[in-house]
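Pinned message: reference record for Chloride channel protein
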Amino acid sequence: MSTSAPHLKRESPRRSPSTTEPAEETPLIQADAPEDSDSAEEPVGSERWESSANQTYNSLDFDEVENELLIESRKRDSGRSHEPWVIKQWVIIIIIGILTAVVAYGIDQGIAFLMKIKFEAVDKYMGTTTHNDTHIVHVDVNGTLVPEERVAYSTTDIPFAAPFFIFIAINMCYVAVAAALVIFGEPVARGSGIGEIKCYLNGVRIFRVVRFKTLVCKAVGILFSVASGLPCGKEGPMIHSGAAIASGIATGKSTKLHCDTGIFREFRNDRHKRNFVTAGAAAGVGAAFGAPVGGLLFAVEEVGSFWSLDLTVKVFVCSAITPWVLQLLLDPHEYAKTSIRGLIDFGKVEGEYNYSDIPFVILLGILGGLIGAAFIWTNIKLTKWRRKYVNTKARRFIEVLFVNGLTSAVLITLVLRGFTCLDENDVLPANRASLKRYGCNPGEYNDMATYFFRSMEESIHVLIHTETSIPIKSLIIQIIPYYFLTILTYGIYVPSGLFLPTLALGASFGHLYAQTWNSMTNGAVTLDPARFAVYGGTAVLGGVVRMTISVVVIIMEATGNTSFFYPLTMITLAAKFVGDKITHGVYEEHIHLNNIPLLDTAVEDPKYESLCAEQVMHQNIVIVPRVVTVAHLKKILRATPFDNALIVIDPESSRFVGLLLRRSAVILIAKQADQRKLELADFVKSDKERQLFRVKKYGIIEEDAEDVNRSIDLKPYMDQWPFTVQKATPFTRVFRTFRELGLRHIVVLDELRKPVGLIG
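Predicted structure (tokens):
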């Protein structure tokens, strides 16, 4: 590709020139790896068997290979009913929804169990048991506290050293487990996973992103990440987990477990797998927020690059099943009497917006965009520093422990010495039982303990259900350290999500924003702090992730208040507009930083509109004759390990006749297509798929004396009708064709239909 051309390719860079007479000494397997890949740390000559597909970003085959085998199969099946095939698809969708709910339930219960152990241990040295939410106080039918159940302590009654070190020690033990699962288990399981799933659904093959091992490390790791007190949420990892579940169910096999059930074989291709992964990602949103419509819109807006009406229905059903099953698991007795809920339950938020609020709402959205842009800019600078200096497994593990230790020390210090006692009558009676009273008198609660010594969704719940104002000092003390700790946390090697931390920060900021206006205007402006906590959470979340439609619907479904639609819409649009002027969204920035070849939705730079196909194509192409000897085919595959398409020509006229994928070429050699005609079933993926590319171990492409006398006719196996363009075709047309059809390759031909380049 021309260096002046826009980034169109999804393939990894070609490392060697492609030719019909490749050098014999060129190895098939290269040691090149992405800059931040852990595989780069493997010593040369290690006994780990790798294929070139494992070392670089690759592309997915969303377009079917239209060859003679497929056409023959269609003719044989033309009289058969498609109903069993459709039923299987719906069975997979239902299973994905149910299993995602089960995994979400396990994560929720696991976090609750780990946090209970931690806080019970800390409480023993706090001189109180008020941390157990179910035993702090009793509330009678009128919402009145029973006096004898109150336990009050002054600040001098709270010891410091013992709870300080115990809290930090337990948190560091928890986070060490999460870090070990990612650093030594599966590095792709770090972070939220939303960016990786977005790239996968865009057509980029990211190694192991939806594997079973990744699912285990992600789901188990997020238990310990959240329980360790890091400012991270479980919603992003739930989306990644749902996608991984969908991938495994859709194919009916697991390479890691060496298991192949033999079922759902007809869906073992990238095109069908993509659709199920989209449904799984939406199910993850449904599980996290109890928002089936929000899950669908999230898939449309954020992760799905290719869409259809049929996929819309399937994704919606899957994202609706998950919260339904999850709610049944969480509360089977009261299930029919409650509204939809997910892992994050803010409770029903009452109230309506006033027209007089609109200017303040828009300004809040602008501030949210600025806060989000500052968050992203700082985090990207930090990430670049990490890639330069924190570049070994040992350093990454130490960094995780350091960040967690710092976070724990700040939080426990604020709880023990930086708190303010607030009147519990300012909190709704139904929420008073969960207040934390460390060091406060009867009828008061510790603001820092109530905010930090609980799950983030519970902290948000208190902020949006507080009837009166929270002191500005308390809000500032909550916001500033948590903001910078969240920036510091995002990017370390543990599973972590950004939705909840940004919502929590925004909720506190919304409270602060409303109270500041109320105090500045001496009552001339009366903004409801609780309602603006919802608005503030949306503003900061939108400023960081830059989503609009899905965020609005998710927040509406999570709060159960549809009257917030217009203010939330104004907020997200303002946050996105302002934030986009400074940076891209956090996921897009990290995708760009990791050099993942994500294909944008449109050509944004006008200078590219004057280009043509000839200026953006790869000129070093791999050309083979239609009938090729096994020896020649092996030589080509060894010499061009990073080329995933072989251009087939008529040897007499040199005209283009078809396209053969590298995977197909390896299968032709491995399954001896020179001795028998292969069938379509020979190309279906199995749990032994990766063994075909472990060349050193299995000797598939090692030369044999008889290879010179063995020939393969590529005509039945090549795609005879791939998409082609003339070399003078405008780049804008090439881009639209490539993007909207989800192509992997476009062959560039000259006026005589001779291949001159490849775009892919």
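Pinned by admin. Summary line: The longest strand covers residues 656-661.
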